[in-house]
Task: inverse folding
């Protein structure tokens, strides 16, 4: 029976041979190889039927790990296997060459993306990836790791039998991964021998994406050099960094300034893994936001908001300004494109860029260090403000920094002053954001008990931190994430909480009344706390607080004191920020699509709203849990208590 | 008791489920047509039999489409009509026999109901009942057709020039009402909350934007509270009005009403009479339904695998958040709804 099956298979291949007669010698060789491979497989099927245990074990070993060729069952002749190996090696070389020529076929790139994560550590050893493109084919030592790749590309390119192909692919992918891992190990130990294939992987990757991409991930990866075994979170951070870099590639800053590659940028992105880069945003920013670059310049059509000037997003802003430090220019683009969002993330990114500016600052001749630095930083902050109105946290940090600059001692060498300022920036970051978050979290932990249902809105790094901490304490609680269009930041929050295994419920904001009955506490993040006790936060926060109030659910606003603002405001219209109205357009089928053509129609995309203090039960700060009305007190005593 | 649905009823149920018939008005019209067909058909011999048939078909409709209360509302109207016409004809017959009872004194009006309820036997065949019913049905039909227009006419009474009006989602009566207001008043600003995930507010906005002298602002649902401080009036439609004067409205209406209450903005609800239902439900769990969650979060996203996602269709708005109902017969306070209900339906038909 099995013979007939194999005969059929051969026949099939023969017919396909007839079809493909015009094909070149190489394809014929491939088919030959495939035929050889088919034969043992059919036999193996028969073996499966008869359920011989010994053969079963060999089978399982093939599916598990070992390369396809060497794992062929033993009842076939040994010669076949060796011949196949030779063939495979030849194929591998051919394929590799072809891949170089044709900028990689699709299946090849598919593996690369698969392997990307595991090889990211090995890439550390070969930071320069772009130059290696036209190197000659690596010699015999590399044949083995290269073989799996060929194994994938061969069946895919011939494409005669679909069922086997997919199975082969899966196997080969596994092998590729394994090979990559081995390569990584080898790289750790010796580093020299396995380099070429890794480089090749990198090459393929380069051909897949734009050349600007690789710079940032590799620089980000540089920082992780110490810990080669990447944790899940770190890998995610890297991915996010790549995404950010991609978004930035669109901003066209990179081409103008290769210097942006500086390691500082990498660290920023790494630091921001907590909250910063919203992938949802960068994913959706493709078509509508490009339009907005052109259209957003015209003033707001809604008369009520004429005073809120739309942030100028003209491309002219982002081309190279000699006075703006590359790190600040990059930050400006990230602000404008909303790749860095959330007031904590914006503040951290700003401080990192600021540190870079301080470190790279050179005092002009016959000028005082402090004053010239102050002027330079002011210019940078103005630039950032043009890109997007500054967050309260950023302007507070800037104020503190300026304060520090003016108080610099006079008779100290410049290097030491820089050291002082860098130290100040680092401690500000650590105390105001890092330790504050810990303090808030620890004071909130006693409020979260078993059976609690926390309701939160949008995405807040602080709330996420608190939830993770509670999960670590093994409290049995769950979270309801309320979200709103168009930004859908809640999906990001959901992803992060989900990654920590916290059970979640997800609704849009108009369904908040539906789930509010379940909630026992409402935790909200804030953009800023105003001096009159109003909470400024992402649009929708006030609505959630309102519904919570109607259901008598306590509303806790979590806010570090570095976000306290001295401004007074009683409604969301006097001062606000307008985002791109095109974000409201759902898709191409949406009837709002050509709203610009209609004179009377305007989508309005407000960024913030103001929650009145009567809707907030308490504000949780690192100092204490306070009523909203105590904000001015904190503002007054803050310099005294050293925050 | 097993009741077989009529062919027309099954067709209607199918059409509604597939989405061929949309909106309360359309459904009401079709249901009325069915009941008219039942009345015309010769399948009933007396009022009692007719009422049985109507009840049975209504129960089937209700079971198949629990969210569409208008079908049972119409059935109740038909039942009430039947009772009235029967009583009238019955009284006429009696009138000939007993002339002395012709004058209706106030005393009689008060005492009459308690007696007649017990005594009336609807199973007695009555001459001319069918014709009388069809006549009366004609009235109901015209009332239905003109209800939207009658509501629109009142736009001028409620909207002055350069007002800022907020509405939610897309309701046909609101659309007509606002169009009328735009024609009559100048410099209106209309804020439309999009009502995610279906975003039907976009349709309303584009439809209204065709008019002149008006400014349309589309906002995401999250910005309702932020904008409410500038709004003069909230005008919304509803799915049905409950017996206590509360609303069963599109999801998001509760937030709108709460925000309006917070800023003391009047909430005007447009509800034609056929949307009044004698249902005493006072929390959303009693009637709410959840829709498809795909629009809320894509199924293929990673967290969606283990996350509970809700996309409820309705919101319950308590009567204290509603300022005014505008129906085709005029304006009503929420506290007056119970009275309208007793006029509209017979007390015995509240339970079908």
Result:
């Amino acid at each position: 029976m099995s013979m007939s099956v194999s005969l059929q298979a051969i026949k099939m291949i023969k017919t396909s041979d007839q079809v493909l007669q015009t094909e070149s010698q190489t394809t014929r060789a491939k088919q030959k190889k495939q035929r050889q491979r088919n034969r043992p497989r059919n036999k193996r099927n028969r073996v499966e039927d008869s359920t011989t245990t010994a053969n079963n074990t060999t089978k399982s070993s093939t599916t598990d790990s070992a390369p396809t060729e060497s794992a062929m069952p033993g009842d076939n002749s040994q010669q076949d296997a060796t011949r196949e190996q030779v063939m495979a090696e030849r194929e591998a070389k051919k394929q590799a060459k072809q891949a170089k020529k044709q900028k990689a076929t699709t299946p090849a790139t598919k593996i690369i993306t698969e392997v990307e994560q595991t090889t990211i550590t090995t890439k550390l050893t070969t930071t320069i990836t772009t130059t290696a493109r036209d190197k000659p084919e690596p010699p015999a030592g590399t044949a083995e790791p290269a073989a799996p790749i060929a194994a994938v590309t061969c069946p895919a390119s011939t494409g005669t039998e679909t069922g086997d192909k997919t199975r082969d692919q899966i196997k080969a992918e596994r092998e590729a991964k394994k090979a990559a891992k081995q390569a990584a190990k080898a790289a750790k130990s010796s580093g020299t021998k396995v380099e070429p294939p890794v480089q090749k992987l990198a090459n393929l990757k380069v051909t897949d994406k734009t050349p600007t991409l690789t710079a940032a991930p590799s620089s980000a990866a540089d920082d992780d050099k110490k810990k080669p075994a990447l944790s899940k979170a770190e890998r995610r951070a890297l991915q996010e960094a790549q995404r950010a870099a991609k978004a930035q590639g669109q901003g066209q800053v990179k081409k103008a300034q290769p210097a942006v590659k500086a390691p500082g940028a990498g660290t920023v992105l790494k630091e921001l893994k907590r909250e910063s880069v919203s992938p949802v945003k960068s994913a959706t920013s493709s078509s509508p936001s490009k339009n907005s670059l052109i259209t957003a310049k015209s003033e707001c059509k809604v008369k009520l908001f004429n005073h809120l000037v739309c942030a100028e997003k003209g491309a002219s802003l982002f081309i190279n300004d000699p006075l703006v430090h590359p790190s600040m220019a990059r930050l400006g683009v990230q602000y404008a494109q909303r790749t860095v969002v959330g007031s904590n993330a914006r503040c951290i990114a700003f401080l990192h860029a600021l540190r870079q500016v301080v470190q790279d600052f050179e005092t002009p001749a016959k000028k005082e260090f402090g004053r010239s630095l102050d002027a330079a930083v002011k210019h940078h902050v103005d630039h950032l403000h043009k890109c997007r109105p500054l967050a309260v946290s950023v302007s507070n940090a800037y104020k503190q920094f300026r304060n520090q600059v003016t108080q610099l001692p006079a008779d100290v060498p410049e290097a030491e002053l820089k050291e002082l300022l860098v130290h100040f920036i680092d401690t500000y970051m650590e105390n105001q954001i890092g330790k504050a978050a810990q303090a808030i979290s620890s004071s909130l932990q006693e409020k979260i008990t078993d059976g609690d249902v926390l309701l939160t809105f949008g995405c807040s790094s602080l709330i996420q931190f608190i939830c993770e901490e509670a999960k670590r304490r093994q409290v049995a609680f769950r979270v309801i994430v309320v979200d709103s269009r168009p930004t859908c930041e809640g999906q990001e929050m959901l992803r992060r909480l989900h990654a920590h295994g916290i059970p979640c419920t997800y609704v849009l904001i108009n369904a908040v009344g539906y789930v509010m009955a379940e909630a026992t506490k409402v935790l909200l993040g804030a953009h800023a706390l105003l001096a009159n006790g109003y909470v400024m936060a992402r649009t929708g926060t006030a609505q959630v607080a309102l519904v919570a109030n109607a259901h008598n659910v306590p509303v806790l606003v979590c806010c570090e004191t570095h976000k306290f603002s001295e401004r007074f405001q009683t409604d969301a219209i006097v001062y606000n920020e307008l985002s791109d109205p095109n974000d409201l357009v759902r898709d191409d089928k949406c009837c709002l699509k050509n709203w610009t053509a209609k004179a009377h129609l305007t989508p309005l995309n407000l960024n913030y709203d103001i929650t009145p203090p009567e809707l907030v039960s308490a504000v949780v700060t690192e100092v204490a849990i306070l009523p909203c009305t105590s904000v001015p007190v904190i503002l007054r005593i803050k310099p005294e208590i050293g925050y | 008791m097993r009741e077989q649905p009529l062919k027309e009823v099954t067709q209607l149920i199918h059409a509604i489920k597939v989405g061929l018939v949309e909106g309360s008005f359309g459904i009401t019209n079709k249901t009325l047509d069915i009941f008219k067909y039942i009345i015309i058909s010769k399948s009933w011999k007396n009022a009692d039999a007719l009422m049985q048939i109507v009840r049975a078909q209504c129960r089937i409709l209700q079971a198949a489409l629990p969210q569409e209360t208008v079908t049972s509302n119409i059935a109740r109207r038909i039942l009430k009509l039947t009772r009235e016409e029967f009583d009238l004809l019955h009284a006429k017959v009696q009138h000939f026999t007993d002339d002395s009872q012709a004058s209706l004194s106030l005393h009689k009006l008060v005492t009459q109901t308690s007696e007649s309820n017990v005594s009336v036997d609807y199973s007695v065949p009555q001459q001319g009942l069918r014709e009388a019913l069809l006549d009366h049905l004609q009235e109901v039909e015209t009332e239905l057709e003109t209800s939207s227009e009658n509501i629109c006419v009142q736009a001028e009474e409620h909207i002055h020039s350069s007002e800022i009006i907020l509405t939610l989602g897309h309701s046909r009566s609101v659309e007509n009402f606002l169009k009328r207001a735009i024609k009559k008043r100048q410099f209106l600003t209309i804020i439309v909350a999009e009502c995610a995930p279906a975003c039907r507010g976009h349709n309303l906005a584009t439809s209204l934007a065709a008019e002149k002298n008006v400014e349309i602002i589309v906002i995401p649902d999250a910005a309702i509270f932020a904008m409410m401080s500038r709004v003069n009036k909230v005008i919304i439609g509803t799915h049905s009005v409950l017996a206590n004067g509360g609303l069963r409205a599109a999801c998001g209406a509760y937030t709108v009403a709460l925000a309006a209450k917070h800023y003391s903005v009047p909430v005007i609800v447009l509800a034609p009479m056929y949307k009044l239902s004698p249902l005493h439900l006072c929390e959303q769990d009693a009637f709410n339904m959840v829709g498809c969650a795909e629009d809320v979060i894509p199924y293929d996203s990673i967290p969606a695998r283990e996350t509970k996602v809700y996309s409820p269709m309705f919101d319950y708005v308590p009567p204290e958040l509603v300022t005014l109902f505008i129906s085709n017969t005029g304006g009503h306070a929420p506290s007056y709804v119970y009275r309208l209900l007793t006029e509209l339906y017979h007390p015995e038909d509240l339970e079908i």
